[in-house]
Please model this.
Amino acid sequence: MQHVAASGGYYISAPADYIMAHKTSITGSIGVISQFLNVEKLFQKIGVEMTTIKSEELKDIGSPYRPMTEKEQALFKKIIDEMYEQFITVVSEGRKDKLSRAEIRKLANGMVYTGQQALELKLVDELGYWADAVNKTKELAQLSDARVVEYIKKPIGFFELLSMNRSAPAPQFKFPEYLDLLKGKVPKFMYLWITE
Model:
């Protein structure tokens, strides 16, 4: 863990045989979140109406065009709770030699931790830099030598966009997950730590 490996980042890290983190990295955030945008009042203000024709009562559950009912909230809460238990299970299995399920549940409150705090809480095994992680990997794999290949995609800036060949494939932009709500991709359950 070099920078941020919180929530989903910790979810995929937990099953590892050994977890090394930089002391200033951010991790933890064990929990599940789902957010639903409601634009009903905005639409009323600008005079836009949405007509929904559906086969069954719950077909438009999570719609941004109306408030969510208590029944719908309860249904989503049940799903969130199930996914949360799955998260706890993944962490429990991965850290079984370090932490009990009860100890993990106490840490699974959505809180983020620095690498140093995560070490003290037994969520990671060691603090170190990139080179330390490479050396530890070689040690665990019983290798005397190894070549590390990093695949880094350079972000496309404004001037790169202007100079792109029109026949080249369009760049793929990565928007924060919660902006998918604006694109109609709801519901979305996320192991996500939002910093804004």
In short: The CA atoms of residues 70 and 131 lie 52 Å apart. The longest helix spans residues 70-94. Residues 173-178 have pLDDT under 50 and may be disordered.
